[in-house]
Design goal:
Chain A: Belongs to the ATP:guanido phosphotransferase family. Chain A: It is an enzyme of class 2 (transferase). The complex is a heterodimer of chains A (380) and B (381). With 380 residues, chain A is an alpha+beta fold. Chain A has 13 helices and ten strands. Chain A folds into two domains: 92 residues, ATP:guanido phosphotransferase, N-terminal domain (Transferase Creatine Kinase, Chain A, domain 1), CATH 1.10.135.10; 182 residues, Creatine Kinase, Chain A, domain 2. In chain A, the strands form two sheets. In chain A, strands 2-3-4-5-1-8-10-9 form an eight-stranded antiparallel sheet. A two-stranded antiparallel ribbon of chain A has the order 6-7. Chain A starts with a helix and ends in a 13-residue tail after the last helix. In chain B, the strands form two sheets. An eight-stranded antiparallel sheet of chain B has the order 2-3-4-5-1-8-10-9. Chain B has a two-stranded antiparallel ribbon with strand order 6-7. Classes of the chains: A alpha+beta (380), B alpha+beta (381).
Chain lengths: 380, 381
Amino acid sequence: MAKNCHNDYKMKFSKDEEFPDLSLHNNHMSKVLTKEIYEKLRGKSTPSGFTVDDVIQTGVDNPGHPFIMTVGCVAGDEECYEVFKDLLDPIISDRHGGYKPTDKHHTDLNFENLKGGDDLDPNYVLSSRVRTGRSIKGFTLPPHNSRGERRGIEKLSIEALASLDGEFKGKYYPLSGMTDAEQDLLIADHFLFDKPVSPLLTCAGMARDWPDGRGIWHNDNKTFLVWVNEEDHLRVISMQLGGNMKEVFRRFCVGLQKIEEIFKKHQHGFSWNEHLGYILTCPSNLGTGLRGGVHVKLPKLSTHAKFEEILTRLRLQKRGTGGVDTASVGGVFDISNADRLGSSEVAQVQLVVDGVKLMVEMEKKLEKGDSIDGMIPAQK
Amino acid sequence: MPFGNTHNEMKMKYASEQEYPDLTKHNNHMAKILTPAMYERLRSKQTPSGFTLDDVIQTGIDNPGHPFIMTVGCVAGDEETYEVFKELLDPVIEDRHGGYKPSDKHKTDINAANLKGGDDLDPNYVLSSRVRTGRSVRGFCLPPHCSRGERRAVETLSIEALASLSGDLNGKYYALKNMTDAEQQQLIDDHFLFDKPVSPLLLASGMGRDWPDARGIWHNDNKTFLVWVNEEDHLRVISMQKGGNMKEVFNRFCTGLTKIETLFKERNHAFMWNEHLGYVLTCPSNLGTGLRAGVHVKLPNMSKNAKFEDVLKKLRLQKRGTGGVDTAAVGGVFDISNADRLGFSEVELVQMVVDGVKLLVDMEKRLEKGQSIDEIMPAQK
């Protein structure tokens, strides 16, 4: 077991001396972490040496965010969710609608179980996208991993992805090799991940050694992409212009399962357990790790007094078109499922398909000057 | 420190080549020195408090270069870093400090009476004068590595020690977390306070953690003597005032610093110092005196002169923008200060600034009149 001698060194200070000042904070971690929990956990370390201070650093450094209720903690390896369960279980419960330590999570990547989804109006639904994350067993996670580990993940990923063919035939582009121009284009196309400027990520150590070991793989059609070593080991994305979410989800499921088979063959399966589903860096992404969403024009609905309530009832969330901590531009919103844990992939994409269909109908009504009061949905 | 070096032993299962950073696009002191072979020899080591080679170099990996300054690219996490990682740090120190050798001895001289002149820099040109240094408190890890408990202990000690200053040095401590945004911005604009940590040079080495916990500023009632607590070093001690009376600034600096050192010693926490490296600070560039003495001076003509850089070099001075170390100059006003830190005493360095700035102002006046400056070009100091 790796020794974390600085953590031992810190033990000479009392818990009161080390406990962070969270008086100005508003994130999930700050709401849950008491001095008692801190005292119980501060002497512990995962086998790879991740400590409670490592888990919470990002939440200490980022008191709150104007648009989103941040989680304020990360995992450094799979074992974090066990070693620090006294802190993480309540956070998971808060974040994931009351999910209990005894609950079981259901995985369903059979795209045939999705009903409809091929007819969202492309005059409103500009693009459709499904993403998830995967962690590779045997490596620590992005807040903690060394360059050797990160490169090991990259190498495995390149090998695995190189063996895909047909509609999944593609190419890997390491970030280190890209020109600034190539990189900017991929970002503008919504294909590439941000250069790490968000303090939510940088404070958790995820930007170390950038751009070493990072890259993007995509198929020739640019409809299926894999990000390597950003916030998770892998992010898998299926996307295309227009409203055919059914096709996007089919490709997502098929591609993802092919990739998983290849990693398993190389003796590096994905981190998963029956309680938390897929294990990812941020507790908010546990379960399916799935965000299925659309860019949709809702200029009228988005200014309607009931917009937020409708989203809540449909179990959807809105974001700006630049991603998780951005604002919307020109009445175009990124609408996606709010849940990750406690419902399956199929169930979550179904919510998006049904919910977006309804919202587009509402938008059309409002355009005509009609009321939408009769269409307000029940809580899903 | 949360940045992946809490598992140094686990990393050893990867070969050195697999862990060695990609420094091909890098241009900082660390990148020029760290070879794969050196990395291999040092990677398994750690200081007693657990600081590792990867901790030392992380900032230099994450920041390949800087448009204005040749960065050091490494930091110390504790006093022992300079010993445990001497194979890397000695050459970095040598490169940065003009050939300073591992066997050299550093001279400390904080006797203000030894400074000649310095009370007559022309205030029409020299807008303000300032001397700063840093001090590390023995027994605590340094800002890249210290825990909240350690940082707060440094703060508590500092508050106690500074509270006992009196007379012209009577003052008050302002914890950063109690300051309003308006108070804080005012102090920054007055050049009294340190930046909110946005520079990636500092953030990448972990110095921004837990901000603003246990950070603060103490200053005397006149705002001419300031102490920063827990920024890039445990303490930064600053003497400053408007105009060109560097002699008075340095007098106050020496008096105040000596008093503070006495107060800390009385509390059984001496400053980190040794006869080879002088005062031990977080950044290897600040070893020795840790002293930067400088002025904000109007040199609109001189700064556009083809010989400006050469003159600065010969005078052993450096220029910065008026916002601090990695900023640009605004309106022809430059921050001119001593380039050296190690291998010269405090008095010697301030003397260079006093003599050098006097000359630069003379040159500026000549250029204003359309005269040449060729006859007054200095020799290499």
